[in-house]
Amino acid sequence: xxxxxxxxxxxxxxxxxxxxxxxxxxxxxxxxxxxxxxxxxxxxxxxxxxxxxxxxxxxxxxxxxxxxxxxxxxxxxxxxxxxxxxxxxxxxxxxxxxxxxxxxxxxxxxxxxxxxxxxxxxxxxxxxxxxxxxxxxxxxxxxxxxxxxxxxxxxxxxxxxxxxxxxxxxxxxxxxxxxxxxxxx
Length: 185
Prior knowledge:
The chain is an alpha+beta fold. The protein contains 4 helices and 7 strands.
């Protein structure tokens, strides 16, 4: 990133109106992908979370692998408890059964938590693809590239795939690792 720009400058002599890449925001991906000529669609994978008082909870970020639950200390005496992946419309309200399922999974391992004191119950959509692989690369529009569909791994994998995509755009050469992730697959 140079001078606050996420994309490299166009090559000398290029018409910047034709070569400056752009990308759609991930939440609007499904509607956008139908217009862009992308052959792969995504749908929302909704993750649930809430916060509880920190007493009895882990003091460091903790992943309860078998339960598929994550505990993240927030400071101020609160811990975020997150888990669940639900394929449903992004605008569907919170399903209380999903919150209860997270509590039931975590309760045996987190015994001192006051589960009834939970606040900040939330559900948020993550773009997921039918084959589980992210969409990284050019689309049917010559000026539009995407880096999305990482599901619940976006925070971990987004920066690396963003770097690979930026390098591919800057050099005009895409690494072999991105081939199976092409948005037009």
